């Protein structure tokens, strides 16, 4: 007979593929290392063209190999990296940060056991395919045409209650996805847009809330509180619940709450003043921000800036960096020296997308720097975030400072070494991995946060856990595995010296047990983020901890 | 079995070579020869023409399309059907490959367990 024959009994190709993976793992991880180096170099603006081409090739190979071995997420990450590395134009800073996240996802996925080889990704229908206990209650057969409308995950006990909720969901144009309340999330299909999680189901519901909040982007969830059983709202809020409702609420009430949760945040009454001498460029900024619901005042003549500032009293200023005559950086410096405008958020648009030029603009006092040509949605998001944070800081700052015995009025009580600049540190990073610390430094400084870095736990505790402490940042990103004193030790010292009220601690956990994490939250940690984490998610947590 | 069909697999990634060889041998019962580069593939195809060639597109040196062109120039290999292993990112190139006269295109990553069926389907091989 020619051609195919039956597989010989006792020979399992799946096991054979697994064995091949095991013997190829080191080589594949070598490719990942090449990509990690390339991304680190790209972030620092020192990726050579040769290394870039080599890394693009490694990414391409990984995309094919990882998927074939059953690592779907790794394959997707490698494909994204290939796209980012392709070409010869400088890689924009925000793209390098995406690349950093994807490299983390790549290594993370390849570090697990391979799943059974799956269908190739391209033709996979985008219908939720819940496994084990999950089953779509609405939307017809899962493999046929997907119904439209946001997908709401429901983790609620009782089949009758679930059916009732699913019916109410359809009436309001939602799809539903029933998920287990034991922290299980479907691996396939699109993530839900929102989730309803019953807290009456014990610790599993907290794990699920945390898992939803840790997705990228985070999935907002509403916690349902049972009236007949005790439940821990504080823990639920810490785990990421965005609101609470009685478990007895009618399905109508529940989905109205979901609608409110998903409704785009109302545009704040904020005015943005834009100075750009090129009318075309000005109008594209104008359009992007107006679409985001912001009031925009445009200006093409630098000479009119002060007048326009007085007239419009803007909440944020966007300056083109290469204005004729006086540059945007100079204008920014002048603004910073004027008491009235010193705290006005300023965003600079620059055509020179390299690390040195960007650093110079930050030095001039810019809160954010955006490479031009820009993506409209990205610009709008940056502006909105900046406005939100500025409002939060204004509302937050005086409270934190009033009770501070180290306030500037009492120079005599000042601890040696506590210079004024220390008061300005917003975020402290305690992390001994130099690459991760560098990524964090980059992510924080490009978002305009003033930060300080410690590599060992004892040094950090010395500064953060005095009474009063030498350093009182708003937020501490605290690694667990640290030299000298581990992260839990640092946290404990901060708790014992009563420093967790003014400083919010986000634990960066890698192999910590659930008990350890719960103990940390119990001690007063504000939040925890598991490694490997997505940088945008972590930055979102930092923003939240800063008081948004 | 007597005289199984012979497939030459050309890919520079050793993991892909091993996986494809394993399933093509174990599941498909084919006789599989591998080559790690376009040049090696050309040489092996010329000295002992297989029944089909599976050829990766992106390889250092002689890439898939260039190897295919050379295969078309060699009288010994001109009539051997060639299946290209293409990446998803190369979707734009797919029509170009099709117009060159390849027998089929297989997107990477491929599902190892479906590989035999896909290849047999493209080549109209009966089991």
UniProtKB/TrEMBL annotation, chain A:
Keyword annotations of the record:
Phosphoprotein
Q: Response regulatory domain location, by residue?
A: 271-387, 426-546
Residue(s) carrying 4-aspartylphosphate:
479
Record SMART domains: REC (SM00448)
PROSITE patterns assigned to the protein according to its UniProt record, in alphabetical order: RESPONSE_REGULATORY (PS50110)
Ranges for the region named Disordered are 108-148
Q: Which residues cross the membrane?
A: none
> Which GO biological process entries does UniProt record here?
phosphorelay signal transduction system
Please name the InterPro entries in this protein's record: Bact_response_regulator (IPR050595), CheY-like_superfamily (IPR011006), HPT_dom_sf (IPR036641), Sig_transdc_His_kin_Hpt_dom (IPR008207), Sig_transdc_resp-reg_receiver (IPR001789)
Q: Where is the composition biased (Pro residues)?
A: 114-128
* Record protein name field: Response regulatory domain-containing protein
Which organism is this entry from? Zafaria cholistanensis
Automatic annotation (TrEMBL), chain B:
Instruction: Write out the entry's keywords from A to Z.
Output: Phosphoprotein
Which Pfam families does the UniProt record give?
Response_reg (PF00072)
One GO BP: phosphorelay signal transduction system
Keyword Phosphoprotein among record annotations = yes
Q: Where is the Response regulatory domain?
A: 6-123
4-aspartylphosphate PTM positions read 56
Q: Does the keyword Phosphoprotein apply?
A: yes
The record ties this protein, via InterPro entries, to:
Bact_response_regulator (IPR050595), CheY-like_superfamily (IPR011006), Sig_transdc_resp-reg_receiver (IPR001789)
Q: Which PANTHER family match?
A: CHEY SUBFAMILY (PTHR44591:SF22), STRESS RESPONSE REGULATOR PROTEIN 1 (PTHR44591)
Q: What is this protein called?
A: Response regulator
Q: Which organism is it from?
A: Zafaria cholistanensis
